[in-house]
Amino acid sequence: MGEAMSWLQAIVLGAVQGLTEFLPISSSGHLRIVSEIFFGDDAGASFTAVTQLGTEAAVLIYFARDIGRIIAGWFRGLFHPEHRSDLDYRMGWYVIIGTIPVGVLGFLFKDQIRTGARNLWLIATMLIVFALVIAAAEYYGRKVRPVEDLRAKDGIIMGSAQALALIPGVSRSGGTISAGLFLGLTREAAARYSFLLAIPAVVASGLFSLPDAFEPAGEGLNASGPQLLVATAIAFAIGYASIAWLLRFVVDHSMYWFVGYRIILGVIVLSLLATGVVSAT
Fold first, then answer.
1. Do 181 and 137 meet the contact criterion of CB atoms below 8 Å apart?
2. What's the Cα-to-Cα distance from 37 to each of 92, 102, 122, 157, rounded to whole Å?
3. Average pLDDT over residues 247-272
4. What torsion do the CA atoms of 25, 29, 35, 37 make, to the nearest 10 degrees?
5. Rg (CA), the chain
6. In terms of Cα–Cα distance, which of 281, 258, 237 is closest to 57?
7. For the chain, domain boundaries
8. What are the φ/ψ torsions at residue 185 (nearest 5 degrees)?
């Protein structure tokens, strides 16, 4: 049976989740790295998935008006064909379509995601490799298409990119925003769709992982119910602030800031692994 998680660990990891969920730097990768380097063990995929419910609650509240309008527009378009060209109706379908790849792959590879994919060699490598993808998207993306110009093809491509985030170290927002930039979307348009697209997948993943989170794990840190609740609440509060900050940041700043951070962190983790300071599993 794994070691019991302390309150300090729960608070720190909840804060890490809130800080990193919406930035293109991989929240699951950061939780794995922080829990290993500072606490000597893995918080586990279930802890990650459950605390993500806090950050997704932040998305639901921050975009409550948008979400309500999209849902209303989607139902209106279902029954009234003249409204099917409306952005809200189309956005409803784009979120549904974009969620399919991560749902299918997450179900098929759920065991690998919870085990082998959490290897720190893989996470550190993906931090660096995907930093180069983000840099290429920033460099080659035209960044001229507003959110009103979204099409079904964009939803499929960005949804497929979101599925890459099943690998810790890639980043859900990093994958979808990069795909959006390659498609010519503005940073703000890509980020907004990225947040909306994440809601169904992350909420489903968190709810699916709730039973496992309360079961004692064979290895890793075991969080109690109250610790999970507090960590999720902290992730919510910090995550809400992170959304507002990122949407303002991407208007006037490039993604290269995150590229540099990812590469530096990846190199540090690879160095710690190579010298035996931390364990990969």
1. yes
2. 41, 29, 16, 35
3. 95
4. -80
5. 18
6. 237
7. 5-273
8. -70, 155
- Residue 55 corresponds to which tokens in the numbers above? 């950050």
The least confident of 88-92, 102-106, 162-166, 216-220 is: 216-220
Q: Is the pLDDT of residue 122 over 90?
A: yes
CA–CA dist 2, 14 (Å, integer): 19
Model confidence pLDDT, tens digit, residues 2-26:
678 889 999 999 999 999 988 999 9
Please state the pTM of the whole predicted model.
Answer: 0.89
pLDDT digits (tens, 9 = 90+) for 203-256: 877 777 666 665 655 456 788 889 989 999 999 999 999 999 998 998 889 999
Please tell me the chain's helix, strand, coil percentages from 3-state DSSP, rounded to the nearest 5: 80, 0, 20
Q: Which helix (H) or strand (E) holds 4?
A: strand 3-4
The DSSP-derived string for 167-222 is STTS-HHHHHHHHHHHTTB-HHHHHHHHHHHHHHHHHHHHHHHHHHHTSPPSSSEE
Amino acid in the structure at residue 85: S
Burial class (CB in 10 A: 0-12, 13-18, 19+), 90: buried
How far apart CA 227 and CA 234 sit, in angstroms, is 11
- How far, rounded to the nearest angstrom, does the alpha carbon of residue 182 sit from its chain's CA centroid? 19
Which amino acid is it at 278? Answer: V
Spatial separation of the C-alpha atoms in residues 203 and 273, rounded to whole Å: 33
Assess contact for 181 and 143: CB atoms under 8 A: yes
